[in-house]
Amino acid sequence: MEAINPRLPRLVVFLPAFWLLVPGAVGLVGVTELVSDPAAAGLEDLVQPIASIVAIALEMLCGASATRSLVSTAERLRARRGLTRHG
User: Fold this and answer.
1) What's the pTM value of the predicted model, to 2 decimals?
2) What DSSP assignment string belongs to the chain?
3) What is the pLDDT of residue 85?
4) What residues have CB less than 8 Å from 44, skipping those under 6 apart?
5) Which residues are CB-contacts of 1 (< 8 A; sequence separation ≥ 6)?
6) ∠ Cα 53 35 21 (to 5°)
7) How many C-beta neighbours within 10 Å does residue 20 have?
8) Nearest to 27 by CA among 35, 40, 14
9) Quick check: 87 pLDDT over 80?
């Protein structure tokens, strides 16, 4: 998507898919357990989807930060190589 519309970052399109699929699947399992056996359902059925959303958000932030620093390091190395070749 970023190649088509550079103003729309990939994460904006990519991240909501994870937020819908992963917690949705975990939440569906929790709702199924709640409907089938309400006495056995507990607080963890509610906590698991929320924990999944938080974990995905943190992972994406860490990944974006690591990618940004790797790209800037690579650009600095390329700039140094350009200076040493011509200088």
Assistant:
1) 0.57
2) -TTT-TTS-HHHHHHHHHHHHHHHHHHHHHHHHHHH-TTT--THHHHHHHHHHHHHHHHHHHHHHHHHHHHHHHHHHHHHHHHHHH-
3) 61
4) 30
5) 8, 10, 13
6) 25
7) 10
8) 35
9) no
Task: Give the pLDDT confidence of 56-82 residue by residue, as tens digits.
Answer: 878 878 887 888 888 889 889 988 887
pLDDT recorded at residue 4: 61
Q: What distance, in Å, lies between the first and last C-alpha atoms of the chain?
A: 39
Place of tokens 């699947």: 25
pLDDT at residue number 32 = 78
- Separation CA 4–CA 66 (nearest Å): 24
Q: Which amino acid is at 9?
A: P
- For residue 22, what are the contacts with CB-CB under 8 A and spacing of at least 6? 52, 56
